[in-house]
Amino acid sequence: MANDFAFESLNHAQREAVAAQDGPVMILAGAGTGKTRTVTCRIAHMLERKVPASEILAVTFTNKAASEMKERIGGMVSKKAAAEMTVCTFHSLCVRLLRGGIHKLGYKQNFSITAYSDQVGIMKQLIVRKGGTDEKVKAETVLTEISKAKNKGIDVADLQDDFFAQLAVAYQNELRAQNAVDFDDLLLLAEQVLREHSDVRDHFRKIYTRVTVDEFQDTNSLQMRLLQQLVGSPYHVCVVGDDDQSIYGWRGAEVANILEFERFFPNPKVIRLEENYRSTEAVLHTANSLIKHNLGRREKVLRSTRGGGDNIRIVAMPGDDEEADFIADEILGEKTAHGRQWEDFAILFRTNGQSRKLELALRDRKIPYRMVGAQSFYDRREIRDVLAYVALLVSPDNDVPLLRILNAPNRGIGQATAVLATDDSREKGRSVWQSLCDPFFTSTLGGKARGAIEDFVALISGAKNRIDIAKENPADVLSELLVEIEYLPWIERGCKNDSERQQRGEAIHSIKESLRDHIAKGKKLQSFLDDSALASEREDDDLEKKKGATLITLHASKGLEFPIVYLVGLEEGYLPHFRSITEGTKDEERRLLYVGITRAQELLTLTYCSVRMKWGQKTGCQPSSFIGELDDKYIEHTTFDDIQNVEMSSDDLDDFFSSMNNIFAEED
DNA sequence: GACTAACGTTTTTTT
DNA sequence: AACGTTAGTC
Question: pTM for the whole thing?
Answer without folding.
Answer: 0.87
